[in-house]
User: Which sequence fits this backbone?
């Protein structure tokens, strides 16, 4: 896997992916040479050399453009095609959609080699003022009261209002995308099982608030570990994740709830398994044009699990456990080229008994999910998924191997809600 990681890291990619959209974009200023400034920038995932098209609800497709420069909240675009000039106006709100690099005409492709500089307008000054006069913005005498007010309740209230912006939250959740997927082939190492997997994923594309959901069903044919007969089973899993991006420039919040149940033969392990994490944090270690993100997360998870235990006589009994898991997640995603992505998600969740406070270093509930994503055409995708699982309780409670490897091929279709 590390060889593949090194090979993939050598490729480059642009920030805004083809078919990815950002809505409610406004043109702030029109400059010479068909250059416009818009109210979206680096914080929204727009970078120099991105290729987009403008469209509006009233006029439809309006123009195409290439990014010349991007700042934190604004960016500059060279417009090279305007089919209907009356439809292009500062009065409209636009939706911008990412386009593939290969769709840029040859004459306009040369703009990407040029370094453009757009000077920030200097603030207007009063000609009567002395330009060399230093303005004092501190009180003549700093008292203890001044220090209290600086970090007092009003300051904290303002900070919380910035984090929980209701209008921004409502706006971000409107741009919600969904995916239906099915796996015509899934094979796992436990009991030589072959499965049919299908499910639903959803999430919004936003720079501040992100909500991601997933629900999955799995039909499986496997060999019974006791009788060696072939039987059918079903598994169910679901997850919801809420993120507030950039509480600080490098830290975001993470909230998580997940459910899982899986039946192997006459044994359900787990019969139900809930992990709930009200609040955790993600540290953004690295991002670039070629790497969408490299993140490290920590979230404490309240873990409740119900499992069928197989008795020597073949009957089962119910075992219930609850405790705390320290969820550590290492995630990365890179774009290899215009149609291929690489993604890897590693979860390590050591278990802590709430009564004894002991951490079980061998009970890790470890999952590594590696995925190669291929865009076949438009919103159709082909995914190859390799999952490695390690769960001590499979062996200690259910007499199953504690390691499991799943290979699957997925067909996926993305659409906007």
Assistant:
């Amino acid at each position: 896997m590390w060889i593949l990681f090194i090979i993939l890291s050598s490729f480059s990619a642009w920030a805004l992916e083809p078919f990815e959209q950002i809505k409610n974009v406004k043109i702030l200023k029109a400059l010479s040479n068909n250059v416009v400034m818009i109210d979206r920038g680096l914080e929204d995932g727009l970078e120099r050399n991105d290729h987009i098209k403008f469209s509006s609800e009233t006029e439809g497709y309006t123009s195409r453009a290439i990014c010349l420069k991007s700042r934190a909240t604004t960016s500059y675009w060279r417009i090279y095609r305007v089919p209907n000039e009356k439809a292009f106006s500062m009065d409209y709100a636009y939706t911008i959609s990412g386009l593939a690099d290969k769709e840029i005409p040859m004459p306009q492709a040369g703009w990407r080699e040029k370094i453009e500089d757009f000077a920030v307008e200097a603030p207007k000054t009063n000609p009567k003022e002395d330009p060399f006069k230093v303005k004092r913005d501190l009180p003549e005498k700093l008292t203890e009261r001044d220090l209290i007010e600086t970090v007092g309740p009003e300051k904290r209230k303002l900070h919380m209002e910035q984090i929980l912006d209701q209008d921004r939250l409502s706006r971000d959740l409107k741009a919600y995308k969904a995916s239906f997927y099915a796996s015509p082939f899934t094979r796992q190492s436990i009991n030589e099982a072959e499965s049919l997997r299908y499910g639903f994923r959803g999430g919004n594309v936003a720079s501040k608030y992100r909500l991601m959901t997933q629900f999955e069903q799995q039909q499986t044919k496997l060999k019974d570990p006791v009788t060696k007969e072939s039987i059918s089973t079903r598994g169910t899993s679901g997850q919801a994740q809420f993120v507030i991006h950039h509480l600080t420039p490098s830290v975001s919040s993470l909230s998580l709830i997940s459910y899982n149940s899986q039946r192997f033969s006459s044994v359900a392990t787990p019969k139900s398994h809930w992990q709930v994490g009200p609040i955790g944090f993600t540290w953004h270690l690295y991002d670039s044009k070629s790497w969408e993100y490299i993140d490290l997360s920590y979230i404490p998870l309240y873990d409740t699990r119900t499992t069928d235990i197989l008795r020597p006589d073949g009957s089962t009994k119910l075992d219930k456990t609850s405790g705390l898991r320290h969820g550590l997640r290492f995630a990365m995603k890179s774009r290899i080229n215009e149609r291929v992505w690489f993604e890897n998600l590693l979860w390590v969740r050591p278990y802590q008994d709430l009564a004894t406070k002991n951490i079980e270093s061998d009970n890790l509930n470890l999952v590594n999910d590696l995925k190669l994503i291929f865009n076949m055409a438009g919103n159709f995708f082909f995914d190859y998924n390799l999952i490695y699982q390690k769960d001590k309780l499979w062996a200690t409670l259910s007499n199953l191997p504690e390691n499991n490897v799943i290979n699957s091929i997925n067909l996926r279709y993305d659409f906007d809600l």
